[in-house]
Design a protein that fits this description.
With about 375 residues, this protein is α/β, with parallel strands linked by helices. The protein has 14 helices and five strands. Strands 3-2-1-4-5 form a five-stranded parallel β-sheet, sandwiched between helices.
Length: about 375
């Protein structure tokens, strides 16, 4: 049996996938290809490992062993039963010829076909609402991959071969999740300023999470909410500090569709079961969410876009999130609108941690009024300045 893979090995394999694309497009674009194809490999490999386990009650020696066992099992009369068992756990089924293992073999023999990979993506997206449109940001027919069919196909084929050497069979969920986080962090530093849209640096994430979870580490069924979740890494920090990480319920919303897709992949790669992830693609300030299921949470974590513009329409004065304050955050600076949204969704005995620019401490007018009301109500426990 191979030794367990450490995250450094895994990171270097995944990062070499980035080298194939780096000369063709910028980090903000190639992150979608790399992370999407790594995610498909994860879905495919974990599927085959599970199939083998259901048939033989043990872990396969290799993925090709698992694929052979799967093909054999499909010829058996109990094949339907096997598929049903997998669907109930995984919410998807992958046909043998659409497994990553099959694609990697084809790529090594120069027989790789993009149509098959596209079909594989479509099948996953259609298998359960939780996967809807998950791979939309990956354009397998983009001119950026090269000029003409052959070159484009070769680029994807090369990427599949490189990523195939990532040994997910012997990697536990945390190592894979951390490698994925590392890649997201690397893309953030390559992308520069825009990166704040999808990533909060780990050091900052840790401080926020530890403050918000303090005193609630023992809570069973902890609920955590991030209304500006980006790629979900801030939310996922909660499992590091909770004593019952398997029972955490994650609620998150993200405005940018491609970032929302990244967050969904990130959740799966960290081993979060579909039942525990409630994620939504939408505008947090424009319309309140969540409004019908769980609406207040033990922990609220937030790194909203600094001093973003918002409509500040008069109608919001009737919105329950803002109505107690008599004024709205100014049009040019939504900072307090985000803060009040988060506070509205916090349980009375919960804790919220939010990152804001320093201006919120000093500006007057409407912001001064909101600040005074928050202080008088005893809602603010501490203000921490970070360098």
């Amino acid at each position: 049996m191979a030794e367990n893979v450490n995250s450094k090995d895994l990171i270097s394999v995944l990062w070499s996938g980035a080298d194939i694309l780096r000369s063709k497009m910028d980090a903000n674009e190639y992150k979608d290809y790399l992370l999407g194809i790594v995610f498909y490999k994860y879905l495919s490999d974990s599927f085959l490992i599970k199939v083998y386990d259901l048939i033989y009650d043990e872990k396969p020696e290799s993925l090709s062993d698992a694929l052979s066992a799967y093909k054999e099992a499909l010829e058996d009369e109990s094949a339907e039963e096997l598929k049903e068992q997998i669907i109930s756990e995984f919410h998807y089924v992958i046909e043998p010829e659409l497994t990553y293992t099959c694609f990697a073999d084809a790529a090594r023999n120069n027989k790789f076909n993009r149509e098959q990979l596209q079909k594989a993506f479509n099948n996953i997206e259609q298998s359960d609402p939780i996967f809807t449109d998950l791979f939309t940001d990956i354009d397998l027919y983009s001119n950026r991959l090269g000029a003409g069919d052959q070159k484009q196909s070769d680029t994807i084929s090369a990427l599949i071969k490189v990523i195939d050497s990532a040994d997910l069979l012997n990697t536990d969920a945390d190592v894979l999740g951390n490698a994925y986080e590392y890649l997201i962090g690397q893309f953030a530093s390559e992308t520069g300023k825009k990166a704040g849209e999808f990533y909060t640096p780990q050091a900052v994430s840790k401080i926020l999470t530890r403050i918000a979870i303090a005193g609630q580490e023992d809570k069973m069924g902890l609920s955590v909410y991030d209304p500006c979740m980006g790629s979900g890494s801030l939310l996922l920090n909660a499992k590091r500090y909770s004593k019952h990480p398997r029972n955490i319920k994650y609620y998150g919303q993200e405005l940018m569709t491609s970032t929302y897709n990244l967050a969904r992949m990130n959740m799966f790669l960290h081993g979060i079961v579909p039942e525990n992830q409630m994620l939504r693609n939408g505008d947090t300030l424009d319309e309140d969410w969540p409004t019908d299921e769980e609406t207040d949470f033990n922990v609220v974590l937030m790194n909203p876009p600094y001093s973003a513009k918002w409509s500040a329409a008069q109608g919001f004065l009737q919105d329950e999130r803002f109505s107690d304050y008599g004024v709205l955050a100014p049009k040019s600076k939504a900072d307090y609108a985000f803060l009040l949204h988060g506070l509205y969704h916090l349980k009375s005995n919960g804790t919220m941690a939010i990152i804001l620019p320093h201006g919120v401490l000093f500006r007057g007018a409407a912001e001064g009024k909101i600040r005074e009301k928050l202080l008088r109500a005893g809602n603010i426990y501490a203000v921490i300045g970070l360098p």
